[in-house]
Structure formats: structure tokens, C-alpha cells
Amino acid sequence: MNNKKKKILIVDDDTSHRVMIKANMIEKDYEIFEAENGAEAIELVEKDFFDLIIMDIKMKKVDGITALKKIKEISPSIPVMIMTAYSSVQTAVEALKLGAAEYFVKPLDMETVCHSVERTFNYLMLQKENKTLKEQLHKNFEISSIIGKSIAMLKVFEVLALSAPSDATILILGESGTGKELIASAIYQNSNRKEKPFIKINCAALPENLLESELFGHEKGAFTGAVAKREGRFELANSGTLFLDEIGDMTLATQAKVLRVLQEGEFERLGGEKTVKVDVRIIAATNKDLEAEVKEGNFRKDLFFRLSVVPITIPALRERMQDIPLLAEFFLSKYAEKNNRIIRGFTPAALDKLMRYDWPGNVRELENVIERSAIMSFDQLIKPETLPDFTNAATAAVIEREPVLQPGRSIKDVEKELILKTLESTNNNITRAAELLGISRRTLHNKINEYKIEM
Ligand SMILES: Nc1ncnc2c1ncn2[C@@H]1O[C@H](COP(=O)(O)OP(=O)(O)OP(=O)(O)O)[C@@H](O)[C@H]1O
Ligand SMILES: [Mg+2]
Fold this sequence. Notes:
Bound molecules: adenosine-5'-triphosphate, magnesium ion
Number of domains: 4
CATH architecture of the largest domain: 3-Layer(aba) Sandwich
């Protein structure tokens, strides 16, 4: 894209002056267009896209200031450089206020002009790169900064390591706050496309028409307010990766268009007829139960199959309680440092309190709780009093959600499973597990031996 010749429009009613600028510019390998007055310039800007405009102020048919106003309305991001024979501070200020990028006094020093043009292009390129960079969440992120040692998370890492380097479409499922976005970033960072753009869009944040214009871009005049042509996220992500977040919230009409890009790699911009071809790797995420959405007719079955080439389900935090202490320590050191506090860790009672809660908001909720505690605590260790009053107990929630009791199973079998689950949820804390199970530590030890449970 950057190898394309930059298109510069020169607007001046003095032909010889235009020729002089053109001669200097062509040497720099720019593509030059000319207009004789403001009216002609406006007409050209309405029809075509220019990377930069150099314009005289004093012209007979529509002067430079009027043209500048109009051009900024049509295409606000085009840099316009103004030149005039009269060094009047007032006009200069007016032009700059109207959004002129630069102001030159005639006779022009072409070296200064060329330098300024080049600097502007460099700046714009940096700005564009920066924008993409900002969208690359956790830029220098590695898989090692995803915390988790539970079996459930180890399985997630395994699938991630296998699928990230391929170009396969990945569907990340999981409740809100489980780390879907973090996993999406990790896939990108570990992919073959890590040097290419990583573009993100939240499909739940925008109404249908705006979402489509964001995804596919639009031609000038496609709808009221579409004053200039715009590339969509699919185009920006070309050769790279597009993260479609909250895909379960996309309307059926938009789903059909996305399906076409996935199948054919092509689409049309809104209000346009030209077919645009792209090569984009898709990572999608949702906290909805997509299969249920398919059954209810809210989500296209074909799109669901297309997306779930590699499905990754991130378990809820209450299903991997072993990760709680680890995550809590991780967030504590992060936020203690950020707030200049010296906090070494948690008292056992505080950790216990964290483990008993069932975290409906998952890791995000845990992170918020720890951040708040790090700010509020002036002790070396976080105490239970510093933590919020959680009302629902984790264990009760776990047992309710996953009934181990099903006809056809032996009592021994169920007992073993309950012990296993309780141990897992207490991070192998025998005292705590025995307490929850309502038996002595000694009895628990005996049962662990009897069932040959490995810890
Ligand atoms: N395993 C983890 N290790 C470290 N931080 C994590 C982990 N999982 C989640 N986080 C952190 O928790 C917060 C929420 O994660 P993220 O935004 O990725 O969740 P999400 O599943 O996309 O949530 P939502 O569905 O609400 O969009 C983030 O600040 C993220 O960095
Ligand atoms: Mg998210």
C-alpha cells in the first residue's frame, strides 16, 4: 500500500507556478494533478482521492480559504498546504484554524515545501501504524502472561499452541471475563501473521448499518454522512488477522455478508459495486451459547460451522478454582506496583475467602477486586476484611451446577468424584476439603488412599 505513488493536487491560477511546483514534485516520484481554481479543486476532491493538496489563497473562481473549508467538509483527513504571495498573519491564522496543515509564503522555497510534504507523509504513515499498534492489545504479549495451571487451562494452552501457527479460523467461547480477548491476542502473537495487522471489532457495540460500514467500508455517498470513501476493517486487516468480538450479537443480515467473506474472501463496500478481495484470518469470540442460538434461529448454522473450525472454550473461573491463588498473586503484584504499595500477598484466610466465592464475572471480577484491595490495604498482607463481602459460597454453586448424582452410578464412584472435585476446588488443601466434605482429615486421607487419588 505504501509503495503506491502518492497523489498530490496543486491548485493555483498561475500556470507557470504550477509547472514549477510540479517539476520539483515529480522528481520525488509523486503523482501530480492540477486545478486552476478553488471550484475545480473541489470538483476533483469530490471525485477522486488525493493524499495531499497544495493550494494558493488568491484565486479568481473560489478562493483558497473558501475551497479549504469545503475540502475539509468533503474529506477531513486530507492535509492541505496553503501558499500565498501576501505574508499576512491573519490569513495564515485563519487557514490554520480551518485545518490547513502548513502555510508557505511565495516565492516558494521548493526545498522547504518538498521537505514539509515528505514530513507530512511520514507523520501520516506513523499515525496509521500507531493506530494499528493500539489495536494490537498487549503488544509484546506472550503465552506466558496468561496465568493458569488448572487442567482445564492447560488444555486450552495445548489447543492454542497447535492452532495458532495455522491460518485456521478460531472460535473462542466462554463467559464474560474469562479471558477471550487475551486468548485472541495470544493466538495472533503466536501466529505466522504476527508482523501483519491485528484488527479488532466489537460486533455488539454498533447498530447493524454502522457495523457493516465498519466491517466492509463504504463508498462516498453510500449513506447520509458518508462524505468520503472509507476502508473497512476487513480491508485494514488484509494479509493479517481480524478479531470479531461478540460475534453472537451480529444480525442475520450481517452474518450472511461475513459468511461470504469467509467462503469466498470477497465483498463489496457499502454503496459500491466493485468486489474487494481480501486474505484475512478470522478469530471470533462470544459469550453466548452459539449452538443454542443456532437452534433458536438467531445464528446461521453454516456460519457457525465455518467459524468453529477450531473451537476453544475457556472455562469459567469457578470451574478452575486452582487458578484463583495464582491469578490473585499476579494481579496483586501488578496493582501493588502500580499504586506504589508494598504488599507481599494474602493471609490464608483472605485466600480462603477468594476461593469460596463463585466469581460470576470471572477473571475480570477477580482482577477488579484485587485492584481495589491493593489500593485499600496498608498492610503487608491482604486480610479478609479488606476484601468485599461475597455472599454466595463457591462450593454451593459448584455442587448445584454440576450434580454428581445420577441414577446408574455407584455410591463409591460418586464419593470418589466428589472428593476429587472438592480437592481440585480447594487446590488440594486437605483441611479445607475435609471441612467442606464434613469428614475428618484422617477419614479424607484414608479415602484418598482407598481411591488411589493422586495429588
Ligand atoms: N488467564 C488470565 N491470566 C491473566 N489475566 C487474565 C486471564 N484471563 C483474563 N485475564 C484478564 O481479565 C480481564 C478480562 O479478560 P478479557 O477481556 O480477555 O475477557 P473476555 O472473555 O473477553 O470478557 P468479555 O466477554 O466480557 O468481553 C482482562 O484484564 C484480562 O487481561
Ligand atoms: Mg471480550
